[in-house]
Structure formats: C-alpha cells, structure tokens
Q: What sequence folds into this?
C-alpha cells in the first residue's frame, strides 16, 4: 500500500513538473511575441525587466536571510559589484554580454566569500551592521576609482533583453529551490533555527554560511549585470543603503523562509515601485510603515514560511513528508 | 601647528560621536536593541535647534534645551509605539523595525520640508581664538564645554539618582529588577529619553560646527556613533565616550593624511576588526551564551 | 572491552569561576554510565566540553584513542559523538522528518552541486536518507509525526525526537542530557526502556546526565557523582547510593529546597 502510494505521488510529481515547464515556455513565448509585435511596449517591457531583476535580488537575499537566518543588510554591495564588473567587461573590454553576466556573478561570489569568512562569526545585529558596513565600503571604494567614473559613474549600453532576463530568473529560482529542498538546504535551515544544535548535529557552520552568502551573492551579481545593462548609466549612488533596505523590505514582506512569498512580493512591489516612481518620498514612507506594521503584527511576513503550493493538499503533503 | 588644529578637530568630531554613542550604548545595555533610528533623532535635534535659532530667535542655550526636550519626547514615543511590543521577539525583528522607523523619520521629514539642506546661522561670526600659536573656531570650544558638561550630568544621573540606579538594575537583570518593584517600562522610557536628549544636543552642536544639515544627515554619523559604541564596548557608558573620541581622532587623522574620501570606509573597517578580535570592545563585559 | 572515552584532569574556568575541576572519567565500549549531581554541579558543562561547545581550560579528552579537546562540535559529530540537550533544542520550524534528516546528512556523500543540479547522486543519497530516517522515526515511535513541525509535538515526543536526531548521526558515543526532565514516571520508565533498546540495537556507549539519582539506579552500570565541579564519588549504583559524601551533597540540596 505504502509502496503504491509512493509511486503514485512520484508520478503525480513528474506530471506537475511537465505542466510547470509547459507553463514557463508558454509564458516566455507569449511575452516574447508581445514584445516582438509591439503589443508590449517599451514602458511595460521595462516594468518586466524591473520585476525580473527584483525577483532575482529578493530570492537571493531570501536564501541568506529567510533560509539561513543571517541578517544581511548589505545586499546592494553585491548588486554594485555585479553591475560594475559587467559594465567593465562590456564597455571597457568590449566583451560579450553573456560573459559579462557570468563575470559579474563570479566577482560577486568572490566578494561574498571575502565578506563571509571574517564576518560570519558575528551574530544577529552585529552581522547586520557589518554587512551594512560592507555595502557602504563597496559604494565608497567605487566613488574613489576614477577608472569607473567615480561619483558620475559609467555609461552602459542597453543589452538586457527579455530572453536573458527570463533565463536568469528561472535559473535563480530553480537553483535556490533545489538547494533549499536538499540536505544542504536543510543544513541552512537548521542554522537559522538553532546554531548550537545544528553544529552538534554535524553542520559545519562556517562552510554553510559562506555557501549561502556565496550563492546569494552570485545571483545578486547577476542581477547587477542585468540592472546595469537595463539602464544607460550606473553610479555608486544607485547602490546605497537605500537599495539594500528596499530588497530587505521585499524579503520580509514576502515572508521569512518562503520562496514563493519572495517571488510574489518582488513582483507586487516592483509594480508598486513603478506606480510610485514620481513620488519617491511617499514610496519610502509607505515601505517603512509597511515594514514596521508587518514586524509588529505579522512578523513572519505575508506568507510566513509557507509556500504557495501549500494551498493544494497534494503538494503540501508531499512537502511535509519530504518528497519534494 | 597644524597637528594641534587637527587634534582639536578630531576631539570636536569625537565629542559629537560620543554624545550619540551614549544613546546607543544605554539603549543597547537595557533592551539589547540597536536603535537604528537614533541617528535620525540626532537629525531631528539638529533641525529643532535650527528652527529654534532662526524662526523662534532663541539663543544658543535655550535652543539646545528645547532641542533636547523635543528629541527626548520623540525617543520615548518611538520606543512606546514601535519597540515595546517587540521586546520579547527575536532581535532581528526588532532591528528590522528600527530600520523601518529610521527610514520613516527620514522620508517623512523629506516629505514635510523637501530634501534641501539648511545652513546653520553663524552665531559667532567666525570668531577665532589662539592657543599655542594655532587659531581655532570658537565653536570648537562650545562643543567641548557642552559635551563635557552633558557627560558629567549623565554620570551623575546614572550613579547618584534613583532613576539611574533603576537603569543599572534593569540592564543587569530586568526580571530581578521587576521583582524588586522597579517599573521596567518606565525605566526603559527614561533611558530612551536620556539617550535621545543627548543625540538632540549632538545635533545642535553638529549644526553649529559643520553648519550644513539635511534630512539624511543622521545615517552616517549614526552608524559612526554606533561603531564608537562597539569600539568602547557596547553597554558601557565610559566606553561610548572613549570610543567616540578615538573614532573622531582616527577619522581626522585619516583625513589629514590625505585619504579624506576613504574616511567613512575606515570606520567600518575598524568595526569589522573590533568585532572579530575584540568583540566586547575596550570596556565591555564578556557574556557567554547558555547552552 | 576497549576504552572509548577518557578525560584527564578536565577543568574549565569562566572568568575566575572554576566551573569544573580535574574531572577524570572514562567509558568502555558498550557501557551505560550515568553522571549525576545536584543542580549547578557542572554536569552540562562537562557535556559541553565533551562535545566541543566549550574548550577546556586545561586537561585532555581522549576519544577512540585520539585527543579531541578543542575540536569543533561538527567534527566531533563526524567522529562519532552525538548529544541531546537538556533544554530541548529542536529545529522547531522544521518537520520531525527534517529534524532527523539534518542530523543524518553527516552520513551522506553528495555535494551541493549534486543538489542544485539534481544529479543522480542526489536522488540516490536523498532517497536512502529518507528511507533510513523514516525507519529511525519508526524505532523511536515518532513515525506518525513525520510531517508535523517539531514545535507542535507533545513534550514527551519532543524529548524522543531529540534522541532520534542524535541517533541519526550514527554515533559511537551518545551523550544524553537529562533526557527525562519534565516527564511523568510512566513516560520516564518508557523512555529508559527505549534508551536500553536503542543502545542494544545500535551497539552504543551511553553517558547519561541525570539530576534525579533514583532514575539511573536501574539502568546504569556505573555512576559518577559530580558536586561543585568535582567528582566526589564513582562506582556501581549500590556503592554510590551508600557513599556518605553523595548523601551529603544531595541532602544539602534537599535542605536548600526545603528552605526555599
């Protein structure tokens, strides 16, 4: 009986994956057709770019904060490194864009490890301040390098397109989903829950924390490359604490520990961002108020650590008994 | 005599850091929260002082007192509205809220009066005084007198008054203090009031010395002051004073050596080094996690 | 019988306070030994040194013929030392199955690359891990809770899960820190039977901390008594029970309890 049940759920799971892949291809194709025929105009295309970039950023920070429980508020630092490295590759070295994207991710990994190793012995609020410090140091260093234009920044060609954005978003979510639902992801969750107990169960704290930071940084770096090549100009001011705060709000609002929550809140808030583009002050007041209210009345965020698939009994059950 | 001038610059900057750091350290000592909005209370203090000097035409000392009174009320309100409910939540939730409060204050201020900077009135019309052959701005003298006076008053409050004793008791063991009949809520409110008043005063003298103020001015000095508090050993009042002075001196030194643009980065590098090699700071106590 | 664990003059001081002084104890392969003593005697501190949470100020710890003092906790787990916590430290937001699987991962050989790209080794290892973890839950009577979050379990089940989680690391030496704290006599009896059972099934050596002397009399082969950070007696349950210094240490505590 149990055997039969198991085979049944596996088959159902496979079928679900097939539907998911079909839906993704359909989504990609429809949007691509829309862009090519001009039904989706420049403005909406730009909204899509922003949504995609913010999904990557939010999901990558979700891995660090929501899954591993490491309160990092310097995520814009990795974004900045990705943006600048990719811009150097395309603008200064005339390299191809895809190479720039990969270089951006790798440079951010390096930064992630570099920050990670010394600071990960710190806990909670101390780690927060240290990561904030990292973000600020990156910004200040960029301000002081004439090669990348100092305060006035760099001109960057528009190269980010729907295809590369779509691939990057899907890859990010896929990798982080796969990592989270594996032994390695469980080690990260264990660190979030109780570091002392995790260590006693054989979880190598430094290794896993650096792993989370490195992977989170990698995708933030990729987001940086897409970000830089979506605008025509980058400067250190784009990557201040404000940016880190924005990503933090997205993660917290989505729910600490919820991947689908991160995707949903990034999508929703990017649209809000666009709507409030002409009212930056009101946007920040709104964000800070929402953040305070969420913390006071629903500290687990909108989704808590639930996933949207928990809405359907079959997928929820599969998650609970560890089949997915 | 340039080094003497730099020394005075460093001490003046350090005194401002120290005043802000005191608020961080007192609040951290009692509720284990990095009050991220503290830098913005400092900013509000600078603006209250500014309006008091320019609109109400009050003198320096009345403006200073008014600024301290207003910021202490703001500090108490922030604690009451945003932090009290989270006292037993994970510290990360409280920290996130504090970051939210910080941004809320900054952008409400920008919304209310735009982001444009203001110039503090020049109360001393550029007067200088001579010492050992070097000349100094009179403001530096005022900063030092005000800062030292406030720190002496704080020491007196903490060590010789009833509320000071309650503060020390609550920071040592809140539960035991409660059993002894101390109102923990009231003591925490007092701590926020005192810390915020000092930040308000720091805002006014910052305005006097550096003349330029704006709604986002609190972030960097706030972070620096936090670093000063960590350097001195968070929770320790003498530590905050020493840490503030040290940081002010180091930053001035870095600027004087010609790396002025890297000044802000240096502070964060100090922070990371301190956290790694001397996590309890210069005057901190070692606390062990219970397993 | 071979010696699996031995300490030599194990001591630790916190600031000026000497929490544990010159503790010499040993365990032979397959033994069940209890470490007892009044509250605050330093029992958990000894555990924390044995599991690498604290580094001893002086003295040696030898496990399986190797010196291990100062080794990081996660390494010790891989060497074969597992523990439970007195004040239950489960991963509360994870399911019961995941709690066990976190511990089980020390026995798996896939890397995060396998996990990210869902390579064959991932399916192989995760499948094995899941089967064996569920089997372990069954042994510990927790299988019906597999999909529940750990924090929703009844108290007794949480205590059992602590043990299951420790067993999942496949230890040679199991350290149990007051596993019966807060349980009623019936639950305690059942728990002691379970401990006996897993010890036999897995061929374990067990060091058991207990505050209540009567609990361990039935199942332990030898007993160490700790008071004020020092060993004051050792021997069979019968010997320890009649030792005047032990009686004094415990009586002193009874007197304190009576006064409080």
A:
């Amino acid at each position: 009986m149990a055997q039969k049940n198991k085979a049944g759920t596996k088959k159902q799971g496979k079928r679900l994956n097939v539907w998911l892949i079909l839906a993704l291809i359909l989504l990609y194709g429809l949007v691509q057709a829309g862009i090519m025929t001009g039904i989706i105009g420049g403005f909406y295309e730009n909204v899509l770019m922003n949504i995609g970039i913010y999904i990557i950023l939010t999901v990558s920070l979700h891995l660090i904060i929501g899954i591993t429980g490491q309160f990092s508020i310097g995520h814009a630092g990795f974004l900045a490194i990705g943006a600048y490295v990719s811009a150097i590759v395309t603008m200064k070295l005339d390299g191809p864009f895809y190479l720039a994207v990969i270089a951006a991710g790798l440079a951010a990994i390096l930064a992630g490890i570099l920050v990670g190793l010394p600071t990960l012995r710190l806990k909670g609020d101390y780690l927060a301040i240290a990561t904030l410090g990292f973000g600020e140091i990156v910004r200040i260093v960029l301000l002081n390098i004439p090669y990348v234009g100092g305060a006035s920044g760099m001109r960057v060609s528009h190269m980010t397109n729907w295809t590369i954005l779509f691939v990057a978003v899907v890859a990010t979510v896929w990798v982080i989903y796969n990592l989270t639902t594996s032994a390695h992801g469980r080690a990260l969750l264990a660190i979030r829950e109780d570091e002392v107990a995790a260590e006693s169960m054989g979880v190598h704290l430094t290794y896993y924390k650096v792993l989370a930071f490195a992977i989170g940084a990698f995708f933030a770096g990729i987001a940086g490359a897409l970000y830089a090549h979506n605008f025509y100009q980058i400067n250190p001011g784009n990557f201040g604490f404000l940016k880190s705060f924005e990503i933090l709000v997205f993660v917290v609002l989505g729910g600490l520990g919820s991947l689908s929550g991160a995707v949903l809140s990034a999508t929703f808030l990017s649209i809000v961002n666009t709507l409030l583009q002409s009212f930056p002050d009101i946007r920040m007041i709104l964000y800070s108020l929402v953040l305070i209210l969420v913390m006071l009345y629903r500290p687990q965020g909108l989704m808590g650590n639930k996933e949207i698939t928990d809405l359907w009994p079959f997928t929820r059950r599969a998650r609970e008994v560890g089949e997915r | 005599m340039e080094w003497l001038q730099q020394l005075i610059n460093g001490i003046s900057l350090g005194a401002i850091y120290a005043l802000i750091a005191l608020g961080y350290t007192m609040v951290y000592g009692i509720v284990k929260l990095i009050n991220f909005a503290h830098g913005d209370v400092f900013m509000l203090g600078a603006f209250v002082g500014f309006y008091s000097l320019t609109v109400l035409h009050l003198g320096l000392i009345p403006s200073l007192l008014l600024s301290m009174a207003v910021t202490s009320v703001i500090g108490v309100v922030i604690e009451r509205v945003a932090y009290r409910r989270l006292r037993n939540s994970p510290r990360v939730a409280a920290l996130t809220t504090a970051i939210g409060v910080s941004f809320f204050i900054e952008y409400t201020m920008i919304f209310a009066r735009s982001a444009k900077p203001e110039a503090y009135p020049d109360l001393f019309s550029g007067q200088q005084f001579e010492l050992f052959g070097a000349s100094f701005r009179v403001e530096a003298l005022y900063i030092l007198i005000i800062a030292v006076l406030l720190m002496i008053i704080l020491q007196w409050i903490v060590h010789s008054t009833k509320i000071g004793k309650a503060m020390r008791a609550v920071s040592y063991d809140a539960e035991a203090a409660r059993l002894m009949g101390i109102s923990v809520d009231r003591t925490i409110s007092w701590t926020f009031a005192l810390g915020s008043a000092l930040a308000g005063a720091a805002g006014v003298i910052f305005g006097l010395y550096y003349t330029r103020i704006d709604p986002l001015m609190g972030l960097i000095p706030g972070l620096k002051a936090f670093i000063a508090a960590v350097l001195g050993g968070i929770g320790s009042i003498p530590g905050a004073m020493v840490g503030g002075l040290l940081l002010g001196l180091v930053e001035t030194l870095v600027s004087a050596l010609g790396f002025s643009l890297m000044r802000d980065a240096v502070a964060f590098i100090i922070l990371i080094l301190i956290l790694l090699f001397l996590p309890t700071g210069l005057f901190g106590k070692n606390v062990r996690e219970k397993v | 019988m071979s010696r699996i664990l031995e300490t030599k003059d194990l001591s630790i001081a916190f600031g000026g306070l000497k929490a544990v002084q010159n503790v010499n104890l040993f365990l032979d392969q397959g033994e069940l030994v209890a470490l007892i003593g009044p509250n605050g005697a330093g029992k958990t501190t000894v555990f924390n040194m044995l599991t690498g949470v604290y580094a001893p100020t002086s003295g040696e710890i030898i496990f399986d013929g190797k010196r291990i003092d100062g080794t990081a906790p996660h390494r010790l787990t891989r060497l074969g030392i597992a523990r439970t916590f007195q004040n239950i430290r489960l991963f509360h937001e994870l399911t019961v199955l995941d709690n066990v699987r976190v511990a089980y991962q020390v026995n798996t050989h896939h890397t995060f690359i396998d996990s990210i790209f869902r390579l064959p080794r991932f399916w192989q290892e995760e499948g094995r891990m899941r089967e064996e973890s569920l089997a372990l839950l069954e042994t510990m009577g927790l299988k019906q809770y597999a999909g529940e979050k750990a924090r929703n379990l009844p108290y007794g089940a949480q205590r059992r899960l602590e043990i299951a989680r420790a067993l999942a690391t496949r230890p040679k030496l199991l350290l149990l820190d007051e596993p019966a704290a807060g349980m009623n006599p019936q639950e305690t009896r059942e728990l002691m039977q379970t401990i006996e059972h897993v010890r036999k099934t897995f061929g374990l050596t067990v060091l058991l901390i207990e505050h209540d002397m009567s609990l361990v009399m039935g199942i332990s082969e030898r007993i160490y008594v700790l008071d004020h950070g020092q060993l004051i007696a050792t021997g069979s349950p019968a010997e320890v029970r009649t030792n005047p210094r032990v009686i004094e240490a415990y009586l002193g505590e009874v007197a304190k309890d009576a006064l409080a």
Notes: The beta strands of chain B are 118-119, 128-131, 134-137, 212-213. Chain B touches chain A at residues 33-34, 82, 85-86, 89-97, 99-104, 106-108, 110-111, 219, 223, 226-227, 230, 261-262, 264-265, 267-269, 271-272, 275-276, 279, 289, 291 (CB under 8 Å). The CA atoms of residues 72 and 194 of chain B lie 6 Å apart. Residues 16-215 of chain B form one domain.
